Amino acid sequence: MLGNWAAAQLGLTEDAAGTYANELVTTNLGNQSDDDILRKVSKDLAQKNVSAQVVALKMEEFYHFALSQIQAGN
Questions:
Q1: How far apart are alpha carbons 16 and 73 in whole angstroms?
Q2: Are 59 and 6 in contact (CB under 8 A)?
Q3: Where are the alpha helices (DSSP H) in 1-74?
Q4: What is the pLDDT of residues 44-71, one digit of tens each?
Q5: pTM
Q6: What is the pLDDT of residues 11-31, one digit of tens each?
Q7: What whole-number distance in Å separates Cα of residue 5 and Cα of residue 61?
Q8: I want to staple 12 with a disulfide (CB 3.0 to 4.6 A). Which of 7, 23, 61, 72 is the partner?
């Protein structure tokens, strides 16, 4: 979800957006921390004047949404 949101902020569409979101999840999958993801997305969105704080809030929002979906069995 964060990757799709970030892709939209960057103005990426369809294939490029999907590629960005997938790479965000799969790059260094086993070694990647939440902080690494936050740094990557924040760096990418800095050009669009999106602060690291906004990225962190979105990341937390999406995490809670995903957790609620899992708990609901969706």
A1: 30
A2: no
A3: 2-10, 14-26, 34-46, 52-71
A4: 999 999 999 999 999 999 999 999 999 9
A5: 0.85
A6: 999 999 999 999 988 886 778
A7: 12
A8: 7
